[in-house]
Amino acid sequence: MATLNSKKAQAKAIRGALALAQQISRFPAAKMWLDYDVEADVLYISLKRPQKANETVELDKEGILLRYRGQELVGITVLDASQR
Q: What is the pTM of this model?
């Protein structure tokens, strides 16, 4: 687990978590899994386990990838996650 050393970093993390929580309430799934790759700075949000997507759609060149299996959204990948 990551440790936040400064109060400024803690406040930023809390604001980010609250913003994410607001968006999550709109997702089409009751359960989801979050995985963060520190080295690649990529956040993976899986709406299904196991995630078996067969199509990826980039959302407006914003570094957000929507992962679909057929017509069903099964995951979201956020590139440069720490910058958002």
A: 0.68
- Tell me the per-residue pLDDT of 7-34, one tens digit each, with 9 for 90 and over: 777 777 677 777 777 777 677 767 788 8
User: Which residue matches tokens 């930023």?
Assistant: 12
Sign of CA dihedral 43, 49, 52, 53: negative
The residue behind tokens 């607001």 is 22
